[in-house]
DNA sequence: ATGAGTGCAAAGTGTTTGCAACTAT
DNA sequence: ATAGTTGCAAACACTTTGCACTCAT
């Protein structure tokens, strides 16, 4: 009772982020399982940052029936292999996205405490702070690993 | 079965942070209850950033027997009144400390992903980013509200 | 064939909430 | 007197884990 509908209608054009990730998985000697496939497919299909629950949800929408625990485990693996990066939001939740080496997600996130919206901030904006923390505090900042917090325009207004 | 041991051996010297906070509470027309007293006492006794559980723990050590839920509710109230500020750490936990207007805790926190240690970062270091985000993204950064993340010297070494 | 990976249910954090009893004002 | 607070237990959101079973290699 687990028919794996693997409709891989690979576009003629270029190598998709999905294919790249799968190839990388294999290259690293890791097993290509249904949950991993599904998680990669979901993440490759968007440039949003998704929570584990959202990944599970969208995977189901794509016809893959995977357990939330498996999503966490797949994400854990993909993170270890550097195929996925994650960002902690101030609320306590975590969001995940693919590491697309074409356009490396070199940006920092800032989340509005009012509405939860996440704004992307160019990583360079943090580089001065980053250097200073390294030099004066001996602290290696990982700017993308935790989202900044604040208020977006709309929520400041009201 | 709830004897409230209120030994208020007020020092002759100056107004303590604790007294200030209690006075402020009253001034704002809020009730001065045992849990609020205890939470304030604990926070006033340290300059560390404590989790709600740590506050409860230390309050018990001080002889106050308060429920964890009450700690959360007291903290919530004190935050609303601006007597306490809180910081979200990347793990999902939250730390609290008194707003001492004498030495305003205008610093940002950076937590080591390796050992969990929290480093203080002067808030000014973030002011350029802060201004830029306000100007170019219409986003009002609250630098102290979420801890930065990275690696401390020791954890980078090993 | 076999060990890595899965589904499930259960436990583990950290935090919030409904409600009856209590208490600061 | 009474509205605001508390303690408790139960629910919550998010994440991890033990275990028997499955499946990618």
Question: How would you characterize the overall build of this protein?
Answer:
The structure is a homodimer of 158-residue chains. Chain A is an alpha+beta fold and 158 residues long. Chain A has two domains: 15-104, Winged helix-like DNA-binding domain superfamily/Winged helix DNA-binding domain (Arc Repressor Mutant, subunit A, Orthogonal Bundle), CATH 1.10.10; 105-158, Ferric-uptake regulator, C-terminal dimerisarion domain (Dna Ligase, domain 1). Chain A contains six helices and six strands; from the N terminus they run ααααββββαββα. In chain A, the strands form two sheets. A three-stranded mixed sheet of chain A has the order 4-3-6. In chain A, a hairpin with a 5-residue loop joins strand 1 and strand 2. In chain A, helix 1 (17-27) packs antiparallel against helix 2 (34-44), helix 2 (34-44) packs across helix 3 (52-61) and helix 3 (52-61) crosses helix 4 (68-80). The radius of gyration of chain A is 18 Å and the shape is globular. Chain A starts with 16 loop residues before the first helix and ends with a helix. Mean pLDDT of chain A is 88; it is low at 1-10. The A-B interface holds A 88, 90-93, 110-113, 119, 121, 125-126, 128-129, 132-133, 137-143, 145-153, 156 and B 88, 90-93, 110-113, 119, 121, 125-126, 128-129, 132-133, 137-143, 145-153, 156. Strand 5 (140-141) of chain A pairs antiparallel with strand 6 (148-151) of chain B, so a sheet runs across the interface. The structure holds a DNA duplex (25 and 25 nucleotides).
